[in-house]
Amino acid sequence: MNKIIEITDFFAPELDVYARLTEVQLLNREFPEKGLFIAESPKVIERALDAGYEPVSCLMEKRHIEGEGKIILDRIKDVPVFCAESEILTQLTGFKLTRGMLCAMKRKPLPDVRELCKNKERIVILDKVMNPTNVGAIIRSAAALGMDAVILTPGCSDPLYRRAARVSMGTVFQIEWTFSDDDFLDEIKKLGFKTVAMALKDDSLSINDPRLTNEEKLAVIMGTEGDGLAEQTIADCDFTVKIPMYHGVDSLNVAAASAVAFYQLGNKKNDV
Predict the structure, then answer these.
(1) Strands, DSSP E only, in the chain?
(2) Which of the 8 DSSP states describes residue 120?
(3) pLDDT digits over 192-250, tens only?
(4) How far from 137 is each of 86, 169, 186, 193, 228, CA to CA, in Å?
(5) Which of 19, 34, 237, 261 has the highest CB neighbour number within 10 Å of its CB?
(6) Which of 108, 103, 105 is nearest to 93 (CA)?
(7) How far apart are CA 155 and CA 113, in angstroms?
């Protein structure tokens, strides 16, 4: 039986996780074993549960208790569920809930880079991609288009931030990922990967160059919005790759560029 609790006090401490704690506070860098994240929408929550993440509580619109949220509630019988009308929840959280449901969940320890890369052939490295919407969209493309894992440098937005996980449609729980140190290239090369810098350079390979698809292990590296990869990172990579563009267009958003790159360079062994 679910513990359905109607919200009567905005300042109840149980609601801090939804109303007053920032994403950074939820992450809890000082005590990572106590870290939490917020999953938004039944689809994202369902995929997190499928991946073994442990729920702490839910916040949802009343109308979804017997509607879209019912499949989730059936899976989390002993978790407190706070509910109210949509207008009250928007006032509480400061945003309109997607599909009327949030779930606070415990984080899991992340693997180290060496462990993550074991038996992988195609990985993505995001270097200082700070926009959570872009991180979520890139991870969704990586999962869908044949990449085996995602590595993020410390300057990147966390894939478990609410917006990133929502934009990914829960694929952050379907593809392996972790954070690396800023100095990531040497370790990746030692693991046998050829490194591909995605950059707007004239002296680049075209993305459909067969030398790329013929490599057994590739690491595709994408840089921050606007500035792209640092010149030294590009110089230290094995290949520099540019996506051909037309009609005078000089660049693509990093999320759009990632979809093109992963479709061309992804692990074809994953084809269905």
Answers:
(1) 3-6, 36-40, 55-61, 80-84, 101-106, 122-127, 149-152, 176-179, 194-198, 205-206, 218-223, 239-242
(2) -
(3) 999 999 998 888 999 999 999 999 999 999 999 888 999 999 999 999 999 988 999 98
(4) 27, 9, 27, 24, 17
(5) 261
(6) 103
(7) 16
